[in-house]
Write a structure and sequence with these properties.
Helix content is about 60%, strand content about 10%. The protein is mainly alpha-helical and about 160 residues long. Strands 1-3-2 form a 3-stranded antiparallel beta sheet, with helices on one face. A hairpin with a 5-residue loop joins strand 2 (about 115-120) and strand 3 (about 125-130). Helix 1 crosses helix 2 (about 25-40), helix 3 runs antiparallel to helix 5 and helix 4 (about 100-110) packs across helix 5 (about 140-155). It is elongated.
Length: about 160
């Protein structure tokens, strides 16, 4: 992946110098043309293109922003109700993530989302213990985390 990034920057600088446009626009055009040439030559690389990982990171960021907004609205609804009928829950979440940075990212995304907090990670790194401020169905909450954050982190790190 580092080779691909270096190649893309080299092509961008080469384009900038050959076209005699020593500006940011000249570099940007060269970078885009370099990215296009990497896509064309992707069969010569052993791993996946770094552009796919960049796209996955962008999707993860947008997913987090969406979940952040939805969770804020849900917590606001719980707080503004005249009668507190929330159902707080502690539950154990089994994760398929194995690397420490993946677990840290998942824990951070869950904790940064209002209404949920990761309380503990098991010693074998297979389980997260989570507290949710309002969880009517724990299985739905687990499925929501697995289908959103964990799936997106796996896409960034492994696919």
């Amino acid at each position: 992946m580092a080779l691909q990034i270096l190649l893309n920057f080299s092509l961008a600088f080469l384009w900038m110098f050959l076209s005699d446009h020593f500006t940011a626009n000249g570099f940007l055009i060269g970078f885009l043309l370099g990215a296009l040439s990497l896509v064309i030559m992707r069969r010569f690389f052993t791993g996946r293109l770094y552009l796919e990982r960049v796209w996955s990171v962008m999707k993860l960021t947008l997913l987090f922003l969406k979940e952040l907004i939805l969770a804020n609205i849900a917590v606001l609804k719980v707080v503004l109700k005249p009668k507190l009928d929330m159902q707080p829950a502690f539950f154990k979440y089994e994760t398929a993530l194995t690397k420490e940075w993946e677990l840290t990212l998942l824990s951070s995304l869950i904790t940064l989302t209002p209404g949920t907090v990761v309380v503990h990670i098991s010693d074998d790194n297979k389980y997260l213990y989570i507290h949710a401020i309002d969880s009517a169905d724990v299985d739905d909450t687990i499925a929501s985390i697995r289908d959103s954050f964990e799936k997106a982190i796996l896409e960034v790190s492994r696919l």
